[in-house]
Structures are given as C-alpha cells and as structure tokens.
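STRUCTURE REQUEST FORM
Protein name: Multisubunit sodium/proton antiporter, MrpD subunit
Source organism: Actinacidiphila cocklensis
Requested output: structure tokens
Priority: standard
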Amino acid sequence: MLPAGGETADLLPLAVAIPLLGAVVLVLAGRLLPRTGVDAVATAFAAATAAEVALLWARLGDAGGRAVSWAGGWTPHGGHSVGVVLVADRLGAGIALLVTVLVAAVLVYSWRYFDEPPTRHRGTFPALLLLFEAGMCGFALTGDLFDAFVFFELMGVVAYALTGFRIEDPRPLHGALSFGVVNSLAAYCSLLGIGLLYARTGELGMAQIGAALAGHRTDTLTVTAFVLVMAGLLVKAAIVPFHFWLPDAHAVAPTPVCMLMSGVMVELGLYGAARVHLTVFAGPGGIPAEAVTRTLGTLGALTALTGAVMCWQQRHLKRMLAFSTIGHAGLWLLGLSLSGSSATAGTALYVAGHAGVKAALFGLTGVLLDRHGSVDEHGLYGTERGSPYTGALFLTGALALAGLPPFGTALGKAVAEDAAAQHLPWLPALYVLVSALTGGAVLRAGLRIFRGAGPRPEPRASDVETSGSGEEPEVRDPRRAVPRTMTAVPAALLLGALALGLWPAAARALATAATAFTDRNGYLAQVVGQAAPLPLAPPPEAAWTAPGVLLGLLSTAAAVALAFAALHPATTVLRPLSTAARGADRHLIVPLRRLHSGRLGDYVAWLMVGLAGLLAALAAQI
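Status: completed
Returned output:
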C-alpha cells in the first residue's frame, strides 16, 4: 500500500478551513446581504467543501492509500510528536464526503424555510451549519485523540445551538439543555480518559498511543481509559443506555438540523468509537478483541431492539424517526464490533444509504410541519390525500428504511447480515426484525397521513405529551406555498440512496476502504513511520447475493404486514395478534416508555449507570 502524495495531504486542512471561512464571511456579511445572497454564499461554501473532499476521496485511490498531514511541519522525531496530525483513509474521507454532501443538501432545503430573520441575524443559521460541518469534517479526518475531542466538542456546541435555535419557544431550549448537559458530561469523561492515556504513554496521537501501549500490560488504567474515552462517542451515537437525549432533541430541533443529526452526527459517534478502538486499543496492551466484541455487540443488539420497539410506539413523527435512528445505530455498532472488513464494509454501505433515506424522511416531515403545524400521525390522518408526490416519496423512504432492494440500505444490510451470520447464525434475524419494525412504523404513519388508510385512530391518554400536535410551525405565513426545494431535496436524497445500491463501483470502493480501515498495522506504520506497511488483504465481496435479496424482501414484507395489522386491527385473522400486542404493551412497552421520562436527572443517572456497567462488563472479562 502506497501513501498518498503530498498534494493530496495538502487537501486535508482545507476540509476544515473552507467551512470555517464561510462561517466567518456569513457572520460579517450577513447583515449586508439580502436573504437570497446569504443563501447563495452559504451554499457556495458548502459546495466548495464537498468538491474539495470529493477530490480528496478520488486522489486516495482504490489502492487504499492514506494521506497524512502534519500541521506546521511538526513531524514526529524518534516516534514522538507534538504536532497536530490529520489522517485520511478512504473510509474517513468517505464519511467526510457524506457530511459535506448532506450539509449542502440541507442548506438548499433551508432556502426560504424559516421566517425572514432580523437583518442582524440573517447569516446566523447557515453560519452555524458551516461551523457544524467544520467540526464534523475535522473529527472524521483527525489522527490526534485530543484534537478529536476538540472537533467533537465544536460539533456538539454548535449542535446545541442549532437544537435551541428557535428561542421564542421554550421546548427547543429544554431539548437543547438536556442534549448539552448529557453530552457535555460524557465529553468530560472522554477528556479524563485522554488524560489517563497521556499519563501512561506521553502521547496524544492515536497511532502513537497505540504503539506506546504495546510496552504495557492491560490493567485497570487501560480499561478505565477505554470506557471513559468511549463515553462521549457512545453518547453521541445514542447507544443504550446513553440514548435518552436523542428523541427529545429531535422532537424540538428545526427540521434541517434533524436531517444532519440523524443523517451523519450519530454515525460519526460510531465511526469515532471504531477508529479509537482499532487504532489505540486493538493491539498489545489494549483491550482484547473478544471482550470488545461481546460487550459492544451486546450493547448494539440491546440498542437495536430498544430503538425498534420504541419507534413502533410513536405517533410523533420526529420522535419516531429518532428512535428509528437509534435502532439502526444499534445494528451498526453490532457490525463494527465484529471487527472484520466484511462487517465494516456492510456497515459503511448501510450508513451511507441510511443517511440519504433518513434525511429525506425528516425533510418530508418538515413539509407536514410547514403545512399543518403538526407532526402527529393521528392528528394528520388523511390530511395529505391531495399530495400524491410527497406521499410517494414518504412511502418510498419507509420501504427503503425497511430494507427494500435495490436501495443502498438493503445492500449494506445484506452485506452486514452475511458477515454477522458467520459469527452467530441468528443475527440476521435481528437485522430483519429491526428493519421491519422501523420501516413498518414509518409506513403505517405514511399510509394514515397520505392515504387515509384504516379507521381514524382513537386518542390515548398516554400519548398526550409526545403526540406531536400543537407544534410551532417553522414558517408562519399560511399563504406561502411549500418551496419546491423542500420536496426536491428529499427526492434527490432518495435517488442517491437508490444509486448506491445500483452502482457496483461504489460498493467496491467502500469494501476497499473498509479493508484499509481495519488495517491497524498499516495505519501505525504510515503515521508513526516505524515500519513499512504491509500490502492490503483483498477486499471483501460487497455485492448483491440471493440470500441478501431474500432477506431484504422478507424485512420489507414484514414491515408491510405490520403496518397493515396496525391499520386494520379489527380484521378477524389479526384479532389474536392484537390481543397479544396489548398484553406485551402492558407488561413490556409501558415500563420501557416510562424510562424515557424527559427528566434531565434521570438521563444523567442512566449515563452513570451505563458507564459503570460497561466498566464492570469489560473488567469481568479481562
């Protein structure tokens, strides 16, 4: 494997610098430009960043090369360094490219989305989006653990501000507060873990720490540092029991922000967890792979089931989509915990396809909020019968979420299922179940809203607080037609998810990227420079197979059946199923719903319980 050239390495800092510069320009010039000018400037900077990262992705090549950039020329001496290092392999550059494409799409979607802001605040929202992009790109490309924390915190602080952007409504402020407190506490834990690693090794670079840990045995300090560093990443990834903040934040955040949080921010937490584990802790002196697989794999399965079950229970569309993200994040953590290139390739494909589908579904939910000031599945019953185009997009997104071939979600799911089955034969059933429940819930909502399917739902007292009725519309001019960009962008995102499943070259490129990502020795050799990297192993097969297609059709059929059963519970053949569902609701679902209390103190307590449990589980195995 050959390193990428110096010209390629020079592209790495630009992925952070361009959106930062754009944010500064918007803050300074926003009050001088008309709204159209602000939108044009913001979109231009986002498009320039996307083009620059696409060039970086192309230059890294299919051979699995890496680009390493030392800021200010502070290169290592004797294996030690004090400089800031950016490292791009194809998977890191790929997720950065996904970030830039989604940010550009969200900026286009946001044209004319909000009310006309005061002149002094005209550039605030797009400037925050560009800052968000800079933090996410920097996190995806950094090779330094402390700088990863800095970029992660930049991303988090901007996300708090974006969540509470509508300060005239107390609900976004409450959601932003819960989001900020829980994530900040987890970030402090991560910083403490970084401090422990620095005390042990005297290094902050991921590769340098990984190489230095080889001279030490695995002990309590190593395990504690691993758990603490993982805290911030698993909280951002909304892994059970660190997930409680996510549905609350999504329920109140502006729709364009939800598109980014579920589309890429949660995924970046999982990417960071996999990067830190593979680079820092996967070698001698780190955490045994079997312990990580068992512990994180169990957390992933628990997260997938919790997210899927809670998704099915929602009528608030934003909370429904948020719990769907939690369910799929559990599947991705499960895949990444297996540590093989095949599982990583499938997860990468799944993430890329899901980003387009989930962002599109959130965008279409924004259309409903714009038209009706509501995201309540029951309250919106039959209100959109006259919107066949929007309805077709929403139902298509639901089927793609359920794993319908040939969407990219289905291809990633198929490759991940095949890899998971090699470890435990029953794991593909978990993928099918989670896809069916999450896709079925969204399909049920879409059929009720856009087709008026089934009888009008009866109100339930337990749903009052999270029904989604009485929301503040994000545009308050009832005479205004929904901008075309609000449906064109979701359509383009769904087409992108479809193209990912139909374009074999994209799947092959991500399979090669996954092989390089899991090549720990090559990463250390190139960054630390202590040895020549070995040739890469052949990439795994990432293509459609008959079992993968059949499992995709099975999960889609199950989603359709679940939606039909929910819409027509009085059907004779479905009455026993409805009776069993009511019993499960009383004994399982109600206690689970009560755990999601909305109380900040409860969420902090669960954070502490989760960290203690993770530490105990790893310590017991090591």
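Reviewer notes: DSSP finds 23 helices and two strands in the chain. The beta strands are 67-70, 85-88.
Form closed.
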